[in-house]
Write a structure and sequence with these properties.
Structural class: alpha+beta
Helix content: 25-40%
Mean pLDDT: 93
CATH superfamily of the largest domain: ATP-grasp fold, B domain
Shape: globular
CATH class of the largest domain: Alpha Beta
Number of helices: 8
Number of domains: 3
Order of helices and strands: EHEEHEHHEEEHEHEEEHEEH
Radius of gyration: 19 Å
CATH architecture of the largest domain: 2-Layer Sandwich
Largest sheet: 5 strands, antiparallel
CATH topology of the largest domain: D-amino Acid Aminotransferase, Chain A, domain 1
Strand content: 15-25%
């Protein structure tokens, strides 16, 4: 075996990551020694040539602890994606920066604890979630007659000293799904359709929300927005990520908008493309010394 790789997960995600068995098999095909390691489990990270974050889906409520772990681990091994990228990406206030760069995002309002929300009525459905979240945790959709429930959700987040974010619910997702663009090693790899997962009502609990995933051919407009986002990342101080997933929704005019740019622990939906796992394995292999 020519290299030692850690795939980083969390205890609660064990057996749930559909990417994991495909990636393990692909890494074995390129003769790499691999271990799956929980991020918060005592480990000697210096024994690994590369540590690749994959399914650390419990970080949202342990945000600072997770970033501290990442910084410490990066001092011992080659961590991907890098710490600066994780710090930027684990708080969705990064959407402001993307919008400022001219990239089309879903209209988003952030409410820090103590900030008022001077809205007296909802004209259309909205989504409320914390700015630090993963897998749809603590996320809910509210109809136009559910302002009180939405306010209660924001109040709960504020009581926990969490920033709330409010977005319109783009109803095109009900017919067209989300489009997830996956990039590996800085190159477009494949795309998937993600079925709508937010019903009206209470916030999503648990480690992640179940999704219906199928292969998808992205439209030229979706590819253009994804490629422009990756080009912006490459030209920024963050640099090009090992892996990225850009989730898009269509607005009322049928134009794609960025819902999220996932650079921390995204599912890459490797099962939707027969060559995707091998692309990821090759990209990891390219990170090895020598």
């Amino acid at each position: 075996m020519t290299g030692h790789v850690a795939l980083v997960t969390c205890r609660r995600a064990r057996g749930l990551d559909t990417d994991e068995p495909l990636l393990l098999a692909a890494l074995d095909r390129v003769d790499l020694r691999v271990e799956v390691v929980d991020w918060d489990h005592p480990a000697d990270w210096s024994v690994y040539d590369v540590a690749v974050i994959r399914s650390t889906w419990d970080y949202a409520r342990r945000h600072e602890e997770f970033l501290s772990w990442a910084a410490a681990t990066a001092s011992l091994t080659n961590l991907h994606n890098p710490v600066a990228m994780l710090s930027w990406n684990t708080d969705k206030r990064y959407l402001h920066q993307l919008s400022g760069a001219g990239l089309a995002i879903i209209d988003t309002r952030f409410l820090a604890p103590g900030s008022p929300w001077p809205v007296t009525e909802l004209c259309a459905p909205i989504v409320v979630k914390p700015s630090v979240s993963a897998g749809g945790q603590d996320t809910a959709r509210y109809e136009s007659d559910e302002l009180r429930q939405a306010r209660d959700h924001v109040a709960r987040l504020h009581a926990e000293q969490r920033t709330a974010m409010i977005q319109p619910y783009l109803e095109a997702v009900d017919a067209n799904d989300e489009t997830a663009l996956v990039y590996i090693g800085g190159e477009f790899s494949h795309a998937a359709a993600k079925g709508a997962l937010l019903g009206a009502g209470s916030a999503q609990a648990g480690l992640f929300a179940a999704e219906t995933i199928t292969a998808r051919l992205p439209s030229p407009a979706e590819r253009a927005l994804g490629d422009a986002t990756m080009a912006w990342l490459a030209g920024s101080e963050l640099g090009m990520p090992l892996y990225a997933r850009i989730d898009l929704l269509l607005d009322a005019d049928g134009l794609p908008r960025i819902l999220e740019v996932e650079l921390t622990e995204p599912s890459l939906f490797l099962e939707t493309d027969a060559e995707a796992a091998d692309r990821m394995a090759s990209a990891i292999q390219a990170l090895l010394p020598g």
